[in-house]
Amino acid sequence: MSVDEVSDQLVGAFQNPALLLGIPLALAGAVCMSFGAQYQHRGVTKVERLSGANGAAGLSARQVKGLLTRPSWLIGTLLLGLAIIFQLAALAVAPLIVVQPLGAIALVITTLLNARVSGHSPTRKSVTSIIACVGGIFLFVFLAAIFATEKDVTTQNLFVILAALVLVIVVLGACWLILRHRMRALFYVIGAGVLYGFVATLAKAIIKRVQAENFDWLTLICVVALIAATVVGAYFVQTAYSSGPPDLVIAGLTVVDPLVAVIIGIVVLGEAAAAPAWVVVSFVVIGAVAVWGVVGLARYHPQVLSDSQDLGITRGSNGAPGSSTSSENGQ
Questions:
Q1: Could you give the number of structural domains in the chain?
Q2: Angstrom distance (rounded) from CA 290 to CA 307
């Protein structure tokens, strides 16, 4: 391959340096996401304790109402709101497949925060899983930043995205109704990740159409679909907090979410159309490694192992059986 051919293929940041602004914006969103997740997890566990009912099979209406009175949960929600603002700003200036995977940095921050709060130091296997998640995602972003290009979102693209979202909601809803008493955190994490992948894609589509001054009835349907997917995904996330540690939830969201968004960005929106075949193959391999990391974290997370072995270490404690942090009790 000649030098000219290589330069022709490096189309992403080299032709549009402004898209690199999306990277710090996405990183700021990831920081807000990690702190927001920790505060929301604290609020969910507090509401569970006060209600005397476990929410692993789905939070009740009373528990959802109780969340609205917990300062920690409200702070977490505010931080997640800021994360969304940063994410939307990043999507406005950069391709979906560059911005979305950067949320993986939230996994590192959340893991360190949760280790400090819960007293569960990461094990060697869980650290390996985290490295697979974050390393895979960052390698993906490196390639995507070089080869990704912005594409206009056509009406046909929107119809395909909306039809796929309806199918996903139907499947997830059926699984929840039939099997919710058997579901564990991983189901809710993956479900929320898939839904949020569509949320990011719809947000990108809406932004592009607004920028093109093409806000029609189909765009309005996309706004409604985005809100619906956000609400269902948020419910799944809160339920996942009740049945698993926050860094497991963030691991799923920061891997499954971008993978879904990236698949849509590549297959439907054509953002990797200028990438050579070896890059597309690399995307598949790297994505598989990241997913392997999430599954490994679900199996080997020290807090999950502690709960399954009944070691007496309570979520939210500082390592002492049955004790809780004063900050959690206050919030």
A1: 1
A2: 25
Cα 165 to Cα 17, 97, 194, distances in angstroms: 32, 18, 9
Range of the domain at 86: 3-330
The confidence score (pLDDT) of residue 54 equals 61
pLDDT value for 9: 45
Spatial contact of 246 and 37, defined as CB atoms under 8 Å apart: yes
Instruction: Report the Cα–Cα distance between both ends of the chain, in Å, rounded.
Output: 61
**What's the burial of 254, exposed, middle or buried (CB within 10 Å: 0-12/13-18/19+)?**
buried
**CA 306-243-109 angle, 5° bins:** 75
Helix 277-300 and helix 124-147: axis angle, to 10°? 160
Tokens for 38, please give them. Answer: 């920790």
In 3D, which of 56, 65, 148, 126 has the Cα closest to residue 305?
126
pLDDT band for 320, please (50, 70, 90 cuts).
Answer: very low
CA distances from 258 to 125, 198, 219 (A): 23, 9, 22
Of 250, 146, 164, the closest CA to residue 205 belongs to 164
Q: What is the pLDDT of residues 85-128, one digit of tens each?
A: 888 888 887 777 777 777 777 777 777 776 776 666 777 877 88
What's the whole-number mean pLDDT along residues 201-227? Answer: 87
pLDDT value, residue 327: 43
Contact in structure between 292 and 132 (CB atoms under 8 Å): yes
Q: What angle do CA 17, 260, 286 make, to 5 degrees?
A: 70
> How high is the pLDDT of residue 267?
82
Q: Where do the DSSP E strands lie in 208-325? A: none
